[in-house]
């Protein structure tokens, strides 16, 4: 993997998503590789941001949690190491129906209009420097792992790590330390939430075992 600079976006997030939605032909299927090429020079972090969309809005894209989560993990590795990440061909050639994707992009473009109005360079100490970038990249990677966990039937189990990824991706792209902090907070909240769920499952298991044994 070669060294890379993850540059700030040159367009508003909502504008980019709207343009992609308009360019996709209805009734077709599109690969993630094609979507990445449509995103263009804004690159990997915006692609990472795109991958959170199905988990943030009511419009659902079936069967993407593991695929999108793994790609986010690999991009997190790239950010941590300041390298262009290796993205497996099998994942990048995964096809998504335009009938599911276009409504999701259109809904996301409206949502991201609000984000565009709030984001700006600030608290730059949280977005600059190799150590800071590695830490932010690791939390991005960790949030991708949390997103991949097979807990989608449990409320907020996908949305919370997706919000962490959203905050980190926007913050790193736009040099907005406030969004980076929001990303870290959601990553922490997700960890606490999953830990409470795990403890609850363990207690339930012990109770069932005790009832059967008793």
Description:
The chain is mainly α. It has one domain (13-213). The chain has helices at 13-23, 32-39, 43-51, 65-81, 89-92, 98-118, 130-148, 159-174, 177-213, and strands spanning 29-31, 95-97. The protein has a two-stranded antiparallel ribbon with strand order 1-2. The termini are far apart.
As laid out across the biggest beta sheet, the strand order is 1-2
- Kindly report how far apart the N and C termini lie: 58 Å
Assign a percent range to the helix content.
55-70%
Q: How much beta, percentage-wise?
A: under 5%
What attributes characterize this protein structure?
about 210 residues, about 5% strand, globular, single chain, disordered N terminus, mainly alpha
How are the SSEs placed, and which strands pair?
Layout: H1 13-23, E1 29-31, H2 32-39, H3 43-51, H4 65-81, H5 89-92, E2 95-97, H6 98-118, H7 130-148, H8 159-174, H9 177-213
Antiparallel strand pairs: 1-2
TL;DR?
The chain is mostly helical.
